Amino acid sequence: MPVSQRPSCARTAPGRVPIVRAILAALLTLAGGIAAGDCPDRNVLHDIRLLRGQAPASTDRHTPEAGSEKEAERSVDFEADSLEATRDGEMLLKGDVVIRQGGRRLETRNAVYDSRTQSFRVDQGMEYSDPALRVSGTGARLDSQGAAIFDSAQFELRGQSARGSAARIRASTGGELQLDDVRYTTCPIGNEDWVLRAADIDIDQNAGVGVGRGVRLDFKGLPIFYTPFISFPVGDERKSGFLFPSFGTSSRNGYSLSVPWYWNIAPNYDATFTPTWYSRRGARLDSEFRFLNALGQGSLQANILPHDQRTGVQRSQLIFSDRSDFTGRLRLDINAANVSDSQWFEDFGLGPEGTSISYLDRSAKLTWMSDRWLASLYAQNFQTVDSAGIDPLDRPHTLLPQLTLHGSYPDQAFGLTLDLDMELANFRHNVAAVDSGWRIDMAPGLRMPLRGAGVYLEPAASWRYTAYRIDDVETPRDDSPYRSTPLFSLDGGLVFERLSGSRQQRLHTIEPRFMYLYVPYRNQDALPVFDTDIADLNLVQLFRTNRYVSADRLSDANQLSVGFTSRLLDAATGQQFLSATIGQAYYFSRPRVMLPGEVLDSPESSDIVAQLDLRAYQNWSINMGVQWDPGEIRAEKGDLRVQYQPARDRVANLGYRFRRNHIEQVDGSFGWPIAKDWNAYARIVYSLEDEMILDQFAGLEYRSCCWRLRFVARRYVSDRTGNRDTSILLQLELNGLSNVGVGADAFLERSIRGYSFDAEQP
């Protein structure tokens, strides 16, 4: 069967194949090396003949003159303790013999050069070396046409800790290579924990194809993979074929076995088909088609379970994405997704995060940009995944279409900047009781950015006009409501700096900021709500001109937002060690604009928001954010993350997340060497709100000199009702070859913040 390696992108050649590409490249170098169409030229042979019967006892050497570097690379020179010419046209090179060609070198005791066939023959132990490869064997045949034979070859790839053997290596003049009784491993001499064996391998350089027969992979003396026939690409070319299988187990789906097949359709098109068998659900087929063209790239994924043995129905998932750059200024992005049922992500997702997927986005966006303008045409709708849990009245509108336009002209008269934001959108809803219609929103404005040493000030004024055309409105309600509102703001700040530290190596800053905002009240109760919601309060939102997201509501305001930031940096490099920010808004009048169902209290100020990022110590980092209600004297929202990481493969994390009446979770994880060649991993996510563990896993890794084995056991909440699933991840990584099993390394890197398997362990 053909075996291949699926590349990461359709234009990218694969990095590893079951028969390792590095060994093929090195052996091809060997085959085309000293005898690749080159032997001593006739001038050299003439000089050698003059030595007949006159060879001195000391070493003789002759190097031909080269007319160019290229000729020097092709030409051959040799050394021998003595030379002897025979009557039948052979030259005997006796004693210690060294044959060189460029960076290639062959050493042996005694060799024969046949002037009639222009070939070398070595009938005893020899050693060959070049920048990529070292080979020893019991004999060799090299001719001037590029043909070569190496007997009982032992080879070692330089810089890759890889070695192997072949009973015979034959290289033909037509670029064909044959290897008999091949063995390959990356384990050191004396250790063959894993070995790749093949009865024979045939490589055709011209066709870019290799064929292996009787291929077997042994681990600890036990065969774990076998195929009577494989076909693989040579060089950087891709080839269709099977990838390594993977297997796993979970309490929800049972045992699973996947055998991917890669299809190299064209240089810019490829596809991967992955049939998977689940012991509790039956057969599933996943497919992914990827493409590249002059405009951009995209992919299409289709996953289907024709008959779920547990539910008795057909199930599927579809994902499509495409990005096309028509010009340097015009781009099209398309994203679409669909699932057959609300349980798909719970059954085949990645864990508890699959239970929180409520909608799938389907959108297309055409974007045009210039030096002054940015325009987009956008269409969007959603699939409601949790169709049973979300009331049809609460589902989002379809946007078909939305046209947005943003323009900016800085450095106009008196230092003014002219801005224009505009939107025209059509909102549709499939429930008649929910408003559908058109919305136009315009916001022309003027700003005057003023900058000085350690100070900035920006007065701004704008006017926002929003109008609607609502479908099927019953009288006496107005079907064309609108809102027209001016906005005024003054944004400014200071930056104070001073050097600190015993050697003045630290830069300490204090950066106060303020923004006064005035927006007069406009009654907006008659306006529909298509896509507007309350924005989360944070340090960015504190200095925005609207506390709502989107255009259906514009909050009235007469307020002053104040913030203070302090930083500690390296004065030479600018590296930040500490950043602390705190901010709050003070209301001179109570906001009156509300969304339907929103409850407004009457505070004199907003909640206090603060953020701390600390990296003052080499291995420690602390990130903390909080939203504090000074009226109730309590936190409304907060998060804390502490990380200790002395190396990329040594990390411990502790986190806490809180949102009043919604979430309160503790998250701890680590990845750490616990003994020589042993690593341990663990994570736990505990909900204080629900008093239950949401996700937990523990794992071990054993690292040998040429392989790794990872084992991870995981138990997590897999659906909205709190049911749990147990899964086991097992991965065997053979250095320089491939991985067998499921991707435990990718799962651990995704789950343990900051951990990396690329790091070398000390």
UniProtKB/TrEMBL annotation:
The keyword Membrane applies. It comes from the Bacteria. It is found in: Cell outer membrane. Keywords: Cell outer membrane, Membrane, Signal. Residues 59-77 have a biased composition (Basic and acidic residues). One of its GO terms (biological process) is lipopolysaccharide transport. Residues 79-208 form the Organic solvent tolerance-like N-terminal domain. InterPro entries: LipoPS_assembly_LptD, LptD, LptD_2, LptD_C, OstA-like_N. One of its GO terms (cellular component) is transporter complex. Residues 314-678 form the LptD C-terminal domain. It holds the Pfam family LptD_N. The keyword Membrane applies. Together with LptE, is involved in the assembly of lipopolysaccharide (LPS) at the surface of the outer membrane. Belongs to the LptD family. Component of the lipopolysaccharide transport and assembly complex. Interacts with LptE and LptA. This is LPS-assembly protein LptD. The lineage of its organism: Bacteria, Pseudomonadati, Pseudomonadota, Gammaproteobacteria, Steroidobacterales. The gene is lptD.
